[in-house]
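Exercise 3.2. Students should predict the tertiary structure of the chain below and write it as structure tokens, then compare their answer with the key that follows.

Predict this chain's 3D structure.
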Amino acid sequence: MRKWITGATLAMAASALATAACQAGDGPISEIRVGVLAHDALTHKEDGVDLNAELFFNGWTSGSWQLRPAIGATVSLIGDTSQAYIGLVYGGPIFDSVFFELGAGAAVHDGKRDTLDPDRKELGSRVLFHLEASLGVMLTDT
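Answer key:
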């Protein structure tokens, strides 16, 4: 329970700071995202819920579709694999407030590189590729 409270508090604090930076309009941060994720939804070797936070920086291209650098972190609330990542994301609106994005970069994690535990993922390397695809709804301008 303590991990949930700590994680939620950190996510709210990061969200408040990034929102203030976005609203100031002068800084390099253009958008923040926070969320709750199902951990390891594809292979189900690890369980639980994760908190996720991402910062997106000002775009490098013009038009409604943007190429933007981004950093983020996904934290496992039960002590399984967590990660921090950095990369480039390209995307934009497909409807009024609905967007689509694709991204690629690198991630560093605290999971097991080699393990015989059937309930843990064996990731092989501390640094891995980070690939993403997003379909979402903009709740606010930032």
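Discussion points: DSSP finds one helix and six strands in the chain. The chain has a mean pLDDT of 82.
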